[in-house]
Write a structure and sequence with these properties.
By secondary structure, the protein is mainly α. The protein contains eight helices and no strands.
Length: about 210
């Protein structure tokens, strides 16, 4: 259990210090985390609506990454952006772009084939079509998580993949605890989180931490 805890701490700390330096991005993650909790609440009562809410949360998160997070040389961690993209455990920018393209193509695919090769009954009205799209979005989100988990099984190890899945599922709760002060930092004009440089999560003792080579 100690090893699993260290691996989880490593993944969370690297995610924070490498990919969440912008307080705008942190604030958007805070908003996204609250939305994701709504998605979780809807999963068993209205999966289609949960799919819509979940992707709204995801787009909020990715807006922060794509438009506000620094993409040049990382002077805080003394690594290049290319290095960070290479060692990232989860979805790096290239994988995210592919995933977003798949997400965006879902309505087009359903418009061309309303049954999607027999997976759905043809929608009788616009609301039915939208609900089918939302259900497909939910399936894409789940499939994306499972696909990355299996990829981590093959390229790293089973433990890394399972820890990453647990991290992703619990990120909304962790993000709220970690970033609730970010809007106040942003209002003070602190665009880059100055606390990152001195942050210490016991990282020296954590396992499988990526380091510059």
């Amino acid at each position: 259990m100690s090893r699993l805890s260290n691996m989880l701490r490593t993944q969370r700390f690297d995610d924070y210090r490498f990919y969440h330096q912008s307080t705008i991005n942190q604030t958007l993650h805070l908003v996204s985390a609250v939305i994701f909790l709504g998605c979780y609440a809807l999963l068993f009562s209205d999966p289609a609506l949960a799919g819509l809410v979940g992707w709204l949360a995801m787009l909020t998160r990715q807006t922060g990454h794509f438009f506000f997070e620094p993409n040049g040389y990382d002077v805080v961690n003394d690594v290049s952006n290319d290095y960070k993209e290479t060692v990232k455990v989860g979805y790096n920018q290239t994988r995210k772009i592919i995933l977003l393209l798949v997400w965006g193509s879902a309505p087009i695919a359903l418009y061309v084939d309303p049954t999607l090769l027999g997976l759905f009954d043809a929608a009788g009205d616009r609301i039915g079509f939208i609900r089918h799209v939302c259900a497909l979005w939910l399936a894409i989100g789940i499939a994306a998580g499972l696909a990355r988990m299996l990829q981590l099984f093959a390229t790293r190890d089973v433990t890394t993949g399972l820890v990453w899945v647990f991290k992703v599922l619990t990120d909304p709760f962790h993000n709220i605890a970690l970033y609730w002060k970010s809007p106040f930092k942003l209002m003070r004009g602190e665009l880059i989180d100055t606390a990152i440089a001195g942050a210490d999560w016991g990282h020296d003792d954590a396992e499988e931490a990526p380091h510059p080579t």
